[in-house]
Amino acid sequence: MSAVHPARAPAADRADHAEIARIALADEAATIRLGGDLALALIAGDVVALIGDLGAGKSTLARAAIRTLTGEPDLEVPSPTYTLVQPYETVPPTAHLDLYRLSGDDELDEIGFDDMVRDGIVLVEWPQNAPSTLAAASVIVMIEAASGGGRTARIAASAPAAQRLSRSLAIRAFLADAGLGDTLRQRFSGDASGRRYETVEHAGETLIVMDAPRQPDGPPIRDGLPYSRIAHLAEDVAPFVAVANALSAQGFAAPHIHRIDLDAGLLLIDHLGSQTLLDADGRPIPERYETATAVLAALHRTRWDPIMPVERGLMHTVPPYDRRAMRMEVDLLPDWYLPHARQRPATDDETARFAAVWNDLFDTLETAEVSLTLRDFHSPNIIWRPAEAGLGRIGLIDFQDALMGPAAYDLASLAQDARVDVPRELETRLVSLYMSLRGGDAGFDAASFERDYAIMAAQRASKILGIFVRLLERDGKPQYLRHIPRIKAYFARTLGHPSLVALRDLYEDWGVLDARTQRPL
Question: Per DSSP, which regions of 245-301 are E strands?
Fold first, then answer.
């Protein structure tokens, strides 16, 4: 048994770790909150060294972290004092180590410590009894008695971990300012962007924390501007706030925003529900898709002022979905998808032909009906609310990148859902329903809309093929590749429209479609 006094372990003051916080732990509840806050900042490769005397609260903190990582608040978390290690099937995997009985590194190889660190998250109590674990720690938490009673947690971390932990502690401070300083936080679903989400409970109601720090501009790629600026992607939370308020004012079901910190990129918003447009097997429920189509028809019938208030006199101007933005998006196909599929980049002649075809299509869109375009109106971003009526049955949650652009885009996003197979018959039904609902609107022309729908469906599919490959090669997210066959199948439907003859010929020549069957390869 080790005789090391953990509270005075000198390795806790490692030169490569900076102290980022001292947190008062007045009671067990405060220790549990801290454990959850730490867990939400951890990633694969993190080793958390928990140092303190017997009874200091190390096990309480570790249990809270594990319950947060598993998403099971009532999970039984046994002490690994005698087994040394207790694994948990989280993503990434979590291992809880108690090294109280060790007096050196000898048993670390036997329990597979290096493998645990490589693949997952490791929480270590009594790390000073096996110095290699302390040397591997990215986070060190020392729990000490406080002079005025209770305890104090001193947290030190390596630079990458410090940034993540500081962000998590900033979210705790944000919640405290909102009167929710004592609430427990749980990880919620994320998306393909850099945004993160958490849930908290308040007065029997579930609220969502949107964690969306301002995104730095990427490298300039055209006309001295980065991709995000050309494609008009939101760089902070102000557009979300503005569009949410505008949608709500017109009777649409967007989240109410309870608290805003624009500088920090934090929002506390309503949780609109957990039901989607899909059944238990992940298949579209036609009636729900039809209701979403009706909401789109109402949204496009509404006249929107592109200048929308955010807060305290700050205004957001919804950008136009202009030719430059559309061209930047379709260029993702030759820039990312084509080299991935053909193992070579596009030639100069191929690039020129691609540009000429799309410029002609963008010319055609000059007469398209323009409305507020939510831009990601498909099943992951649409909430089914059966207890509500009318427009309130469809919850809208992803619109921070909204533009003023062709109304047909959002219907194409829904009826050719990138995440789920929408049968051709259902797509036809949705387009017909939309046109019938819009038929009496002044200026609406069904033939022009069908043409615009075909062009925007092709534009969106071209963009998505490139994005899914970019997510793999740039961001290390391979899970989106499984959707590519579906996108190519949508192409096979869309490219039969007379307005897309030149594009169909181009994509057949490039091997995106089989020239004889117009089916995906």
Answer: 257-261, 266-270
Cα 333 to chain centroid, rounded: 22
Quickly list H helices, 416-514.
Answer: 424-438, 446-473, 484-494, 501-510
Identity of residue 145: A
Alpha-carbon distance of 42 to 24, in angstroms, equals 21
For residue range 459-512, list pLDDT tens digits in order: 999 999 999 999 999 989 999 999 999 999 999 999 999 999 999 999 999 988
Map tokens 């909150």 to a residue: 33
Chain CA centroid to CA 164, Å: 16
Encoding tokens for residue 368?
Answer: 């398209």
Q: How far apart are CA 39 and CA 171, in angstroms?
A: 13
End-to-end CA distance of the chain, in Å? 64
Burial class (CB in 10 A: 0-12, 13-18, 19+), 125: buried
Model confidence, pTM:
0.89
Q: Pick the closest to residue 255 from 375, 398, 397, 400 (CA basis).
A: 397
Distance CA 433, CA 414 (A): 13
H or E element in which residue 205 lies: strand 205-211
* C-alpha to C-alpha distance for 458 and 370, rounded to whole angstroms: 18
**Which distant-in-sequence residues (6+ apart) come within 8 Å of 306 by Cβ?**
317, 318, 404
Where does 7-112 have alpha helices with state H?
Answer: 28-39, 58-70, 108-111
**Region of residue 190 (left: phi > 0; alpha: psi -120 to 50; beta: else):** beta
What's at 412, amino acid-wise? A
